[in-house]
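Journal club prep — side note

Before the paper discussion, L.F. wants everyone to see what a predicted structure for a comparable chain looks like in token form. Sequence:
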Amino acid sequence: MALDCRHVSTQVYALADAKDDPLAPLVKEALDVIDHALDTHGLDGVSLSFNGGKDCTVLLHLYAGALARRLGPSETLQPIPAIYIAVPSPFPMLEEFIDDAAEKYNLDLFLCRPPSERVESVVTPLPPPLNANGVVDDDYVEAPKAVGKAKGAEGMKQALEIYKDKFPDIEAILIGTRRTDPHGATLSHRNMTDPGWPRFERVNPIINWDYAHVWAFLRKLDVPYCGLYDLGYTSLGSTYNTFPNPALLVESPSPPVTKAETSERAYRPAHELTDGSLERAGRGKPVLVA
């Protein structure tokens, strides 16, 4: 069922103007950046990078609101240009959410799965260490081991080359990058792609948001998000290198002893993570295998 984007517009702009709400200046800043990009490149020259994660879900909701505000009384929102660059072995639940969001927000979503020379191995759980009594230590936190190699930057470049060839009128791409993300510290609201890459302006409306702001926004406006976040995941990537955040592990009355007990451990939802610096603690570092 499609969302009422005029209602979304009313929501987000009211929040931007709200007094004494810590989100207000960040929402206003993001909407101003989006509006400036639209004024610069036009409705047909701007696309949205959407991979189903929490950050780009915030951005999608803001963008839909900004677009709806530009509609005349009798106009309807046209399909929103967007690109989804898939990672190797994405979570099925994530892809289901992406499909649902594309339908709700009327995305004209271009799916790109760039070719890859390497295929990652599966994530395997580390066996729990046993103490001298032959049981799992009380302070043990289970974390899967990620193995293999992902072609992150190279795959992204290939995908953008494909997108530029297919949609040459797209000049700018809205991205949900935040300053605490890898490579986000030196970015501003608007940056051109690096030399040697397909030429796009990268627009980062929520660059100054932090982890807590993202969840405050999603929950305050009741924005639909991927269900993996309710299972303890705090940063989503490939199934090869992503697992529930150990910081959200629910402590059990007694330590697990059997393999079955270990695999059934529960995690609190992502919005309950109070230390944003641990956001990526559920992401494993790929390790090359011979």
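L.F.'s comment for the group: The helical segments are 5-16, 24-41, 54-69, 92-104, 152-166, 211-220, 259-263. Keep this in mind when we get to the figures.
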